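Let us work through a complete example step by step.
Step 1: write down the sequence.
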Amino acid sequence: MATTRLMRTLGRSGIEVSALGLGCWAIGGPFWASDGTAAGWGEVDDDESVRAIHHGLELGLNFLDTANVYGTGHSERVVARAVEDRRDQVVIATKFGNLFDESTRQITGSSAAPDDIRSACEASLRRLNTDYIDLYQLHINDYPADKAGIVRDTLESLVAEGKIRAYGWSTDFPERARVFAEGPHCASIQLNENVLEDNAAVIALCEQFNLAAINRGPLAMGLLTGKYNASSKLASDDVRGDRSPAWMAYFKDGKPSPEWLQKLDAIREILTSEGRTLAQGALAWLWARSPQTLPIPGFRTVAQVDENARAMQYGPLQPDQMREIDALLAREPVA
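Step 2: predict the structure and record it as tokens.
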């Protein structure tokens, strides 16, 4: 299958990436928060994960976003296996900040102290089997802004040492993002952003400072795939399951939230226009939202990667469709 290769520049780093990335959270397999709740997406087939990454590369998707904590190191190892003979063809982003026990697959805490950043970086380099990380991201959403300058300066040192090429922060708070934006090698902010839930303040900051706005949750944790309805029930080892964390807005008690399903129904017809699937329409909205956006939908199968990549054939939604969506969701249109 041929696709149209939409491209983005990774903020002010100059690194060229595909406008669609591969989100590698789910391929890490099961792991657990410190309170015993699921932090992963259930069991996975590593061979299928590798095949899916290879298929994405064949379709021109060169940006892989993972984290050291996904599967407590397992996602990074799967990525390494998939790209071992093609490292120069991919841009690898990973994250730090969570502490974990690989033997129990459990998160044990968090830290962004300089020594812990350095040890986490070295561990990720080993798991990824690479000499450098293209984009290294702080993975603590609410890390105090008044302490973030030390983190930023440590990351600048890692750039100078050749361990990383650029850095960013996975945060939904513009005042935190602004601290990193002041660093010369900051390239991105990763934020929760999708057609149902717009974070205009962080998008504006990314546009102001020429940072990539990497979109986690671009398909609203799967809600925007159209695979789930009011009667759906997620497994207990799924982060969306019956013990989902407080921040999981789209699913509650293992079921899709009725509020979000209602919003989805209101805009379904627009998203599925021109032959798009629902997921493809959701990605089209993100590309139209800002020139900085870079969605990274998760995947576990070749078929999921294939469907998402096909969205590039359609490109962004049109301005009138964007305005209609804002009206249907009763929110202020983007200037």
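Step 3: interpret the result. The domain at 7-219+291-318 is CATH 3.20.20.100 (TIM Barrel).
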